[in-house]
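so ive been stuck on this for like two days lol. basically i have the seq below and the ligand is zinc ion, smiles is in there too. i just want the complex predicted, nothing fancy, no docking runs or whatever. if the output looks off dont worry ill sanity check it later, just need somthing to start from for the group meeting slides
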Amino acid sequence: MAESFHLSPSEYHRWLMDRIRPALAWGGGDVAAWQERLREKLREVIGLPPQGVAPLAPRSLWKREHPLGTIEKIAFAGEPFADITAYVCLPKNIPPPYPFTICLQGHSTGMHVSIAVQREDETKPLAVEGDRDFALGTMARGMAALCIEQRSFGERREQLQQQVSRDGCHDAVMQALMLGRTLAGERVGDVDRAIDYLAWRGDADMDRVGVMGNSGGGTISIYSAALLPRIRFAMPSCAFCTYRESIMSIYHCADNYLPGLLRWAESADVLGLFAPRPLVVVAGREDPIFPIAGVRRAFEKLSAIYAAAGAADRCLLVVGDGGHRFYADAAWPPLLAFLRQRVPVPQPH
Ligand SMILES: [Zn+2]
């Protein structure tokens, strides 16, 4: 019998993970005071960019009628030399002020998927699978949508660098790390900037601005919900699971990893920062990269945080009978019910 060695790096990391007790994990007591401590740490870990450094400079690129309402393509500045393109989608026959859902695609060809048109010719239709035409689903339910292009995706993919990694996010992730930032933090900063744009418009119901997205879009929905006080509802899909059972066990894009986060919190603690605001967590029973057992384990802990915040009924898990995708018909009804209640939402710290 040959001597056995421990040669895989993951073996030691797993041993270490078993021993980590995240220092700011939820452990009972005053929810708001705990949230303030963890939110401050998360802002530091994610490297949230300073806001309002560049003028917003909103511009209209085109506008056209759609069977569900009107769609306008716009651009505004996120940071200096970081412009954000977006679609503003207003529902037909609904008067302002509009509740707005900020829609975030994941690792795809870009935000054009949200309105089911082709990227290179936005007059041509696109067949969209897995209910990822988020803006059309939003308009069909009488709400407005703002689809923003996230850094490293779609129109904001890297196009200047001489040699580019085959993985679309890799270069930006690594460069951000060296600058004391993260790509996830920059994306959350862009969501905050998108809310500035909504406030500038004057026709948005600022008490009903929310965020949704699938996969990489779900991940940024989670961190935006955790960090941005102006987000009032959230519907992250196929992104919420214990870190241990998803990104720490199965290959994921580097944009999922935040320096040292597990020393402070697990995923339920992070999303617990959104309590008591209305939250619908969407998952796929067969999702291979966010396994359902880990989703349920994380959701159980998240529910305890919501219960402690007096909002047990404002946090729901919707499980679709399939894989890594969005489930519009299952997810929207409970979210719309939350929004109809118009429960006064305490302003978080
Ligand atoms: Zn990525």
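Residues 107, 169, 216, 253, 255 surround zinc ion (CB under 6 Å). Residues 183-201 form the longest helix (19 residues).
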